[in-house]
Amino acid sequence: MASSSVSREEVERAAGLRRELEHHLYRYHVLDDPEIPDAEYDRLYDELVALEEVRPELRTADSPTQRVGAPPSERFSKVPHLTPMGSLEKVTSQEGLEKWVHDVRKRLASEEPLGYVTEPKIDGSAVSLVYEEGRFVRGATRGDGQRGEDVTANLRTIPAIPLALRAVEGSPPPALLEVRGEVYFPISAFNRLNERLLAAGSKLAPNPRNAAAGSLRQLDPGVTASRGLSIWVYGLGYREGVELETQWGVLEWLRERGFRTNPFAERHDSVEAVARVCAEWERRRIELDYEIDGIVIKVDLLAQQGRLGALHERPRWARAYKWAPMTAQTRLLKIHIRVGRTGNLNPWAQLEPVEVGGVTVKTATLHNEDDINRKDIREGDAVIVQRAGDVIPQVVGPVLPHAPKTEPFRMPERCPLCATPIVKPEGEVMHRCPNPRCESRGLETLINWVGAAMDIEGVGEQLVRRLWREGLVTSLPALYRLTPEQLAALEGYGEISAAKAIEAIRRSQERPFFRVLYGLSIPDVGWVTAQNLARHLGSIDGLMAAGQEEILEVEGIGPERAEAIVEWFSDEENRRLVEELRALGLRLEAGEAEQPVEGPLSGRAYAITGTLERFSRDEAAAALEARGAKVAAGVSGKTTALFAGESPGASKLAQAERAGVPILAEADLLELLRG
Ligand code: IVH
């Protein structure tokens, strides 16, 4: 037992630990720049917990140990906001934006200079944080704008929310202050939550916004704490004795006092620059680990804001430039199988058409049988569909447990096209049709050739399917023998568009060797392996002359893959194909395109496995290579890190573990590319 009176050392130690711990929380969660390892933080934290246990009188309300620990409540009480929490009028186009600026100009004196601040519009849950004499005393949801729910205990568990304002010399904390911000669910944490819900057989969270709002309204703060929420703070409500002139100044003021303000806020003096930002972030939003659904544009000068005022609690001095959401709910009508160009069986979902991110989505990928069954996706389910960038939409999972009568999904036992029995090699996730002459292979090879491999403008999947059906093009060389007249004879083609397409096909003969190699659809030779083979062996002749031994020396190629390559080239028909392509003048020798690029990631080597959410593996590899990194098809002791997406390959994970190579998530990859 402790002695009766608290010693001075104990008082000082407790205060010192509190200060240190809050400082490290700030470094980690606000600045994203920790100074000490997690284990060291935990050691300090445990010391404070132990000290407070022996000396409960040392436990202060703003002790970091008191962030979690409030007992679950029965319900939330309502609290009035000191100033109302309004909402934003939206615009959805550049014209809308210009019209708003025109309106603002009309209300202000015409020649007055006008500056703007743009901020990402965080798709989370709005909160108001009240600080008295610099201490966090109350936090509430927006509610009806006048009164919100008191979620103080839950907000205290969010480590990015300071329990006390940081001291700024010569500027004592205001007696009373309202800070406004958006609590959000990081996408990485959201995916982890859905993994957990899936494992528990519970209903999935449809999107990070709902999940953030739901987590904030948990009756048990312990649950909120476990969710990993964060906050971006963007403004002030009621304040006493805070003199500021601009929104930009408000953001700086908040940052200095320990709040997390978004690093992508910018200041502009023309509406054109604002429009550029809105367009830029619509493209770039997938890079972020949080969802944004638009850009908020604010008139920078607070005096001008005051003169513009608000209409029905919607400020005239701000607009939300909004984009369409990236997730939606719909019904999965049927699961189909597509046999890919190397024989893999790829399941895909036929959906009831739904708008996602401004595009009507009718189909989505389903990775493989294991993944479908792990998520328990069945025909007839209401499902959540997600789109990211230009990547094919994905089915995240069912909204509710499936209707009782539908059967779990099973891969067919025979190829749906050629009826050959399907195989599934040990340790792999994909089923495949082993028949090299399966009809699908030729067509899918052509589709991949005009798209990912050769990127032939104006010649896409639809056209290739038509040419295949008409019997005009049923092999790669036949594509190069197609005449403008044949194309112009197809319905919907005029002479000009036919000539253009033929010209684009002709130009594709100039594409680098590794693209040709990739386009041949040799099993397991993806974009990265094709590049490595081209670089290492120099030409198709070098590759054909190389034995298994020599191919094995190429980065990332194991015995099975080497054998498959040798086997492919030993097939008479494949050799004939190569010779025909040579005669047509395609490039079969490595050149400049195969040389590595110098950049910030030079000297590093990465590997990628599984399905990424935000881009295809080829796109990710290209982005890493453009920064100088090497991307290998396999993992070795030289690999810097392995990025693992959904349904990662078991052998790559095992190799990484054996070689002590760190296995990182897609979020880490995005961070690396951003940095
Ligand atoms: S300013 C008078 N700035 O968008 C309202 N709002 O309808 C002024 N939001 O849920 C709001 N990011 O919480 C502002 N950088 C940002 C924001 C932002 C997200 C949310 C806000 C509210 C909605 C506005």
Explain how this protein is built:
Among the domains are: 8-66, Helix hairpin bin (Helix Hairpins, Orthogonal Bundle); 90-322, D-amino Acid Aminotransferase, Chain A, domain 1; 327-398, OB fold (Dihydrolipoamide Acetyltransferase, E2P) (Beta Barrel), CATH 2.40.50.140; 596-674, BRCT domain (Rossmann fold), CATH 3.40.50.10190. A hairpin with a 2-residue loop joins strand 4 (125-132) and strand 5 (135-141). The strands form six sheets. A five-stranded mixed beta sheet has the order 2-13-10-3-9. A five-stranded antiparallel beta sheet has the order 16-15-14-17-18. 38% of the residues lie in helices and 19% in strands. By secondary structure, it is of the alpha+beta class. The protein binds 2-(butylsulfanyl)adenosine (IVH). Residues 86-88, 119, 121-122, 126, 182, 234-235, 296, 315, 318 line the site of 2-(butylsulfanyl)adenosine.
Rg result:
30 Å
Q: Which overall shape is indicated by the principal axes computed on the Cα atoms?
A: globular
Structural class, by secondary structure, is alpha+beta
Q: What number is the mean pLDDT?
A: 91
CATH topology of one domain: D-amino Acid Aminotransferase, Chain A, domain 1
